[in-house]
């Protein structure tokens, strides 16, 4: 009986056996995307060399859905977005980026309405700026009502990753120090606090990314997205705290208006 159970476990851990636990992990659970075609190819080759499922790695704009990468899908996300780059108003969603994949039927069967709704949102925005899909550019705009100016890539990555997570999902992201202490980015910090637990912020040494030519001081941010009940509870407490503060400082607020 022990030998039989041992063989059963070994078969379940055999990555070469379709349907085994490790096969499912490699081929159904690991996804990645990169706008740089060389980085995407390197990643796919690395996966192949380790016998892993490379089919989930895509050369694609990380802000847009592709195949199995769409909102509400992931338990864990790890990312290191490019620093200093901007998403411009001229960066629009092209027809090619929202083209219907040949195997869309397989994704519809596997993911159902969640996939349909996610793809529908992107297709409805074709021809519009990529930033129009996100809330943070609207909060941080400084070029007049109704307009979307350029926005730092790393800021959009924060919102994108939170959207990709399932309720209760966790993420780790490398961010420049300014996101944590720049007064003009307070709206980004508030956005995060309204949607997730801040589990940890780990400050990295200045020279961490010197080898790749980056001298920006960076930190690691770890967050866990609220579950539905946790989000509702947070909104209730936040509204109560704001009402209490406004009542306490009513004379000052009235004199300002």
Give an overview of the whole structure:
With 257 residues, the chain is an alpha/beta fold. 42% of the residues lie in helices and 17% in strands. The protein contains eleven helices and eight strands. The chain has helices at 2-12, 21-29, 37-49, 104-111, 113-124, 136-139, 153-164, 178-181, 186-193, 228-248, 250-256, and strands spanning 32-34, 57-59, 74-79, 86-87, 151-152, 165-176, 196-203, 218-225. The strands form three sheets. A four-stranded mixed sheet has the order 3-6-8-7. Strand 1 (32-34), helix 3 (37-49) and strand 2 (57-59) form a beta-alpha-beta unit. The longest helix is centred in the C-terminal third of the chain and has 21 residues, at 228-248. It starts with a helix and ends with a helix. The model has no long low-confidence stretch (mean pLDDT 89).
Write down the overall mean pLDDT: 89
> Uncertain spans, ≥5 residues at pLDDT below 50?
none
Total DSSP helices: 11
- Residues in helix, %: 40-55%
* Rg value: 22 Å
Distance between the termini: 80 Å
What fraction of the residues are assigned to beta strands by DSSP?
15-25%
Strand order of the largest sheet: 3-6-8-7
**Helix and strand string, N-terminal first?**
HHEHEEEHHHEHEHHEEHH
Task: Report the strand count.
Answer: 8
SS class: alpha/beta
Tell me the overall shape.
Answer: globular
Question: Largest sheet, described in full?
Answer: 4 strands, mixed
